[in-house]
Structures are given as structure tokens and as C-alpha cells.
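Same chain as my last thread, 158 residues:
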Amino acid sequence: MTRIDLGLRTTFTALLVFLYVVACGKTEYTIQAISFPPDSRPDEPGWKYTMLVTVASNQSPITKQSKKKVKIEVYDKNGTTFLKDDSVFVSASIDANFVWEKFEEIEIELFEVGNKFSEDPYNAHLVKHGPNSLLKLTYTYDKDDKKFKRKLNSEANP
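reply #2:
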């Protein structure tokens, strides 16, 4: 990939993030990104697919326990979407752990974490006692539909 291509891709990504922020108004959000193949990065050459986990909240600050919408997406370099999934939680901050070692299977665990800079008692409790698991997801690639689908054994935790 040439330096110009990398610059254009970076500019395009920044524009998309800007438009997302403007369109959301008062919505606060966090984004986690992971690329495939393993050890590739979405901001460097070599990636073929990117997964984004976006957490959005209409209540400020996003670290406060409130209704959060989690959106999971996988797309390729051409912008073709292979996965779109949404979940809603009432929680403090949400983080995700990923396992995506072979293309056909993605494992994600969503969990609620405390923020040591947040001054509310709920976050203080989470910081002291550790994260709460919210949802464990497994997606498998359906070759006929050319999409990832959630496995039935994905589980929600109380």
C-alpha cells in the first residue's frame, strides 16, 4: 500500500468518525477495534477484516451506570459487512475481550468494568471487586450466506 493510499484511508476513517460524532449529538461512545488476520492492525497494511465493538450511551458520563447499546460489526477492506449485531445493557463502562484466530469463528466476551476516575459508588464497587461478565458470544461464518451468525450457545449472565 502506498503512502498516498494510507493517507487517504486515514483521512476517510477520520471523516467517518467525525460524521458519527456529529450525528450522535449528545450520545457518548467508545469503540474497540480488532483486525483479522491476527497481529494485523486496522491502521496498518495487512488487515483483511475489521471488527468494531461500539458502546453508546445517551447519559453522561458514559462511565455511569446507564442504558448502553453495544453494536458489533465486521467488514472487509471494500466495506462489505459480514456481521451486524446489537445488544442493550444497563451497566457502567463496557469492555470486550476477543478471540479471532481463525476466520470462521469469533468469540467475544462483553463485561462491565469500573472506572477509577468516576466518583460514584457503583464504579468504586466495580473497581474494588472486579468486572462483571455481561455476555459471551460466539459467531461462526456461514459460507452460504457469507455472513457471521451467532451460535445458539452464546450466553447472557445475570
